[in-house]
């Protein structure tokens, strides 16, 4: 498993510059353009805090989601269909779980890395109200894993990459827009509110927000963690099943 | 300007017809997964409208336009969503897809063994991208009317403006693609696109930016597009919008001129 | 009328010259070949003839027209089968032919009828509605050839038509191309297989390093540059070199390759007897007729396929 991870880390050393852009600069711009810009018009703040401070923890969680999904779509599909990397690994003395877990750990590390950078920026802007904010990192890793595992399963199933665009448009984008990152889900109509609760991202957003603002989350912490863990477990089993189907003939 | 440049680029009998064959080829590839992608392409700006326009709108409340009129936040954001989605649609078809077809699938090499010429391929691809984009724009405007964010008459005008925006970005996108070396370069395109999306007076009036940033923003194509469509849907269009139109036409002409020249160079070596 | 006429044709890329001043004339109805190893300049020549690559120098006229100014008009009358299949993977086998026909402005109805005819010709009727991806290499090649015929071209350009195919698939392609030739279609092909050139070409030029080194019919070239028969000897040793001197005086010429020695002779069996008379016992002996491979070896001192 660690050999697999090592491969991805070595590979990442070559391409990290490109990823700085998508996983760090873009969220930063979102924070400036949207958080600061719109924040100036949200005169009363949200739930008693300035809009920017309120939005930033959501953005940290949502960036974790973007990075994790990004690393679990094209790279995974490509490793099956294009450069056939997984097949090469399967020919080496590695188990299927090594191949899967090695890649997953890399995805989590990538997620952590960009979350940490973002957290530092957020601190520089003075949007963090509490030392509990450090907990946004494990939360980011958890939500990253919660979406990466089912995405691995999905990417391992499809063979045409237009299905990845479909995943983005029907899954990732709605989730990013309606999980309480930009506005409280409580203002959504009832049905949509429950859709938002079903998204793993909302749970991470609520936890992160509680952490950076130093307040209690809207739901019980244990409930949040359990729900995200459920996604991780179910996703991992699905991914393992699909990997086995593709790699063991 | 377009009428000046275009005839020179395509001065060969049957150019329009042959561009049409390129469109036909694309239409023949439509499959089930593609339809889903198409529907989802329409869904995206609508989701943004609901999330930002209504969700964040409920936090922002109403907005005062530079001319003093007060409109609800959704009516302010919606035309910007339309302009951005016209941009995104046109760019994704003319950069990502176009590049893949040209460099990796060698699709155009096969086409070039026929009487079809590079510029005709470019125009065909652009027309195809536009056909898609126009359907999205029309559907989005219908929703805007239904949500009472604009009137039907204004929506019709905005529809034509959205077509112009799509063409302008399509032309620019194609010109850019001919300079692309690898997929990594597209990260930059996507980033620039996203930056434009954030700062083109999309979510807040450009007047709220610091002066230097404001001048920079006002010179970008997306800002001009947003300005044009917003003026039309909110009914505040004036002489100033002629500048927007001229700007977008110039962008289109520039894009096509560069794309036509560079494609010839790249494909006919 | 000469279909293809080139004088002093040159193609230069940054830093190197791919085609270095060649003269070519192709007459209607003939099968004309460019034979040479990889990198000899065959494909560059083909691309210039296909009007997708402007010549750097010299004169080139195709169907009496200038390829730079009248590319579309010329291409309307050419069929091109490129070295690497560039079929449209998003379309089915039949759609590949019908959409391609549309690029030539062929009416839809005619295109459909012609696609069916051509699928029959290249024996792909059963796969008509399949996608391109799952087809075998030979099938893809045949489909590319069918696509090149969709506009009923006056000249068909085939760049390495059977490279990468297994022997069975090659023979099927050859057989189809032979049928085309019989129908009077002008074929221009490049190849680095001498058997392909011998099978298909009425006339050919041998190319090496961008230049034409010989020209004629396969028979005439062999008569002129080689002997009637060749004896191939393989000795079981690290190097074949030491044995060469012991073969002095047998046949007209001795050629030493890394893995064997070639003896150019008029009568193979007599030569073999003489070799055995000198108490040499090669591990392998093969007597064969001279081929274009030998012509190339004589002309350039190198083998075609390495």
Automatic annotation (TrEMBL), chain A:
<keyword id="KW-0813">Transport</keyword>
<feature type="transmembrane region" description="Helical">
    <location>
        <begin position="222"/>
        <end position="240"/>
    </location>
</feature>
<feature type="transmembrane region" description="Helical">
    <location>
        <begin position="103"/>
        <end position="125"/>
    </location>
</feature>
<dbReference type="GO" id="GO:0046677">
    <property type="term" value="P:response to antibiotic"/>
</dbReference>
<dbReference type="GO" id="GO:0043190">
    <property type="term" value="C:ATP-binding cassette (ABC) transporter complex"/>
</dbReference>
<keyword id="KW-0472">Membrane</keyword>
<keyword id="KW-1133">Transmembrane helix</keyword>
<protein>
    <recommendedName>
        <fullName>Transport permease protein</fullName>
    </recommendedName>
</protein>
<feature type="transmembrane region" description="Helical">
    <location>
        <begin position="166"/>
        <end position="185"/>
    </location>
</feature>
<dbReference type="InterPro" id="IPR047817">
    <property type="entry name" value="ABC2_TM_bact-type"/>
</dbReference>
<dbReference type="InterPro" id="IPR000412">
    <property type="entry name" value="ABC_2_transport"/>
</dbReference>
<feature type="domain" description="ABC transmembrane type-2">
    <location>
        <begin position="18"/>
        <end position="246"/>
    </location>
</feature>
<keyword id="KW-0812">Transmembrane</keyword>
<feature type="transmembrane region" description="Helical">
    <location>
        <begin position="20"/>
        <end position="42"/>
    </location>
</feature>
<comment type="similarity">
    <text>Belongs to the ABC-2 integral membrane protein family.</text>
</comment>
<keyword id="KW-1003">Cell membrane</keyword>
<dbReference type="GO" id="GO:0140359">
    <property type="term" value="F:ABC-type transporter activity"/>
</dbReference>
<dbReference type="Pfam" id="PF01061">
    <property type="entry name" value="ABC2_membrane"/>
</dbReference>
<feature type="transmembrane region" description="Helical">
    <location>
        <begin position="131"/>
        <end position="154"/>
    </location>
</feature>
<dbReference type="InterPro" id="IPR051784">
    <property type="entry name" value="Nod_factor_ABC_transporter"/>
</dbReference>
<keyword id="KW-0046">Antibiotic resistance</keyword>
<dbReference type="InterPro" id="IPR013525">
    <property type="entry name" value="ABC2_TM"/>
</dbReference>
From TrEMBL, chain B:
<feature type="transmembrane region" description="Helical">
    <location>
        <begin position="76"/>
        <end position="100"/>
    </location>
</feature>
<keyword id="KW-1133">Transmembrane helix</keyword>
<dbReference type="GO" id="GO:0046677">
    <property type="term" value="P:response to antibiotic"/>
</dbReference>
<comment type="similarity">
    <text>Belongs to the ABC-2 integral membrane protein family.</text>
</comment>
<feature type="transmembrane region" description="Helical">
    <location>
        <begin position="188"/>
        <end position="217"/>
    </location>
</feature>
<feature type="transmembrane region" description="Helical">
    <location>
        <begin position="237"/>
        <end position="259"/>
    </location>
</feature>
<feature type="transmembrane region" description="Helical">
    <location>
        <begin position="121"/>
        <end position="147"/>
    </location>
</feature>
<dbReference type="Pfam" id="PF01061">
    <property type="entry name" value="ABC2_membrane"/>
</dbReference>
<feature type="transmembrane region" description="Helical">
    <location>
        <begin position="34"/>
        <end position="56"/>
    </location>
</feature>
<keyword id="KW-0813">Transport</keyword>
<dbReference type="InterPro" id="IPR047817">
    <property type="entry name" value="ABC2_TM_bact-type"/>
</dbReference>
<keyword id="KW-0812">Transmembrane</keyword>
<dbReference type="GO" id="GO:0140359">
    <property type="term" value="F:ABC-type transporter activity"/>
</dbReference>
<keyword id="KW-0472">Membrane</keyword>
<protein>
    <recommendedName>
        <fullName>Transport permease protein</fullName>
    </recommendedName>
</protein>
<keyword id="KW-0046">Antibiotic resistance</keyword>
<dbReference type="GO" id="GO:0043190">
    <property type="term" value="C:ATP-binding cassette (ABC) transporter complex"/>
</dbReference>
<feature type="domain" description="ABC transmembrane type-2">
    <location>
        <begin position="36"/>
        <end position="266"/>
    </location>
</feature>
<feature type="transmembrane region" description="Helical">
    <location>
        <begin position="153"/>
        <end position="176"/>
    </location>
</feature>
<dbReference type="InterPro" id="IPR013525">
    <property type="entry name" value="ABC2_TM"/>
</dbReference>
<dbReference type="InterPro" id="IPR000412">
    <property type="entry name" value="ABC_2_transport"/>
</dbReference>
<dbReference type="InterPro" id="IPR051784">
    <property type="entry name" value="Nod_factor_ABC_transporter"/>
</dbReference>
